[in-house]
Amino acid sequence: MGIERDQVVRTALRLLDENGLEKLSLRRLAGELGVQAPALYWHVPSKRALLDHMTDVIVAPLVPELAGPSDPAAWPDWLRRTAGLLHEALLAHRDGGAVALGAGLHRAVALGAVAERIVEVLHEAAGLDLADASRGAGTVLQLVIGRTVEEQALTDVTPEALAEVRSRFPSMAAALALRQGPDDDAASFRFAVDLLVEGLRAVAPPDRAD
Amino acid sequence: MGIERDQVVRTALRLLDENGLEKLSLRRLAGELGVQAPALYWHVPSKRALLDHMTDVIVAPLVPELAGPSDPAAWPDWLRRTAGLLHEALLAHRDGGAVALGAGLHRAVALGAVAERIVEVLHEAAGLDLADASRGAGTVLQLVIGRTVEEQALTDVTPEALAEVRSRFPSMAAALALRQGPDDDAASFRFAVDLLVEGLRAVAPPDRAD
DNA sequence: ACCTGAACACCGTTCAAGT
DNA sequence: ACCTGAACACCGTTCAAGT
């Protein structure tokens, strides 16, 4: 009796949390499972596929939360909440953003379900045509995942690099001084999501509730 | 008389255009320059630094175009134009988006200058406080670079993967059908930038010109 | 059905030594 | 100042062969 794909994916997720994405190799993963690296290719066709399935597990907690807004006019709040939930799910795993970046939605089905739901809500509740609804949904996912990647990566910004940026670019230096403190990541995430939601409100057809 | 850093960076850019980012290794680059791989470490401290300098060259065409809007009230048009110019500059090199993704602004100085200018315009012309101006600028860069990465990467989406997405997610399937055609990338880019610009207008203090 | 052994074709980086 | 030789410590992936 050998290993199963689900076990492979969950072990990979544990190694990710312990050592980060750049230490997650198929050889290490195989070692952890007590097999040789090529054995993994029976369970998974490539490393990218493994990362896609890991993304599926990472984003799975969102799926029960995807019911649309009870009141269609409340779609902006629903979208903010959904973006926040995705952000949290990605932050819950070390390098979760980087794993999800570029994931194929055919394998990261939970992420696909999030995308699908956002398209529906932007189409049906916000009143965008389907093409723009899907563009909007893509932009939301890209922004949430992209911001999470930066948040989880900024360990490796050296103080010297920061000092150089500061000395070259005075407005950014002043801005960085204002953005000290542990809540800045959360505030910046909220700000970015708000920009998008307000932008979507601006391009959406006017609602009777306005 | 040996090689110079500028020569290293420009040769790297040529190899990038010819073979793409995943084939750009320090060994190949060294071979192209007629030296051994470790020789590159005299000119550049790491591969990431090389990519940062490549980003600097890629984004350099923007620098002469960075004068702010003549009329402060015209900042939304200025921002759309600047985003478009950055997009074009990144598209001008194979995998240009991926190279710029995560570049350090202390070495990719031209990209730093773009960021700095956007912060200034959002602060002085749009009237955002400095913290939000820098958050807004960061969001713009992230969106432009992120969309360019996706645009330049979508060669490797297999038809089978697409078919699976289509069969699982009906709204996305319908949306994809509407988004056929060669202009969709440009339209989607414009849509995403518009979302952000409209969002910024919404959070900016009202202007006398409104 | 599930895995191993052995190999292919590579990586980025370090560092003593050479000129 | 600029580069080589040799090595360290790895990678993802393929494929014939084994059980």
TrEMBL record, chains A, B:
Signal sequence bounds: none
Known DNA-binding region: 25-44
Keywords annotated in UniProt: DNA-binding, Repressor, Transcription, Transcription regulation
InterPro entries: DNA-bd_HTH_TetR-type_CS, Homeodomain-like_sf, HTH-type_TetR-like_transc_reg, HTH_TetR, Repressor_TetR_C, Tet_transcr_reg_TetR, Tet_transcr_reg_TetR-rel_C_sf
This protein's record includes keyword NAD: no
Domain spans labelled HTH tetR-type: 2-62
Gene3D superfamilies named among the record's database cross-references: Homeodomain-like, Tetracycline Repressor, domain 2
Molecular function (Gene Ontology), one example: DNA-binding transcription factor activity
Domain of life: Bacteria
GO biological process: negative regulation of DNA-templated transcription; response to antibiotic
Name of the protein described by the UniProt record: TetR/AcrR family transcriptional regulator C-terminal domain-containing protein
Species whose genome carries this gene: Actinomadura barringtoniae
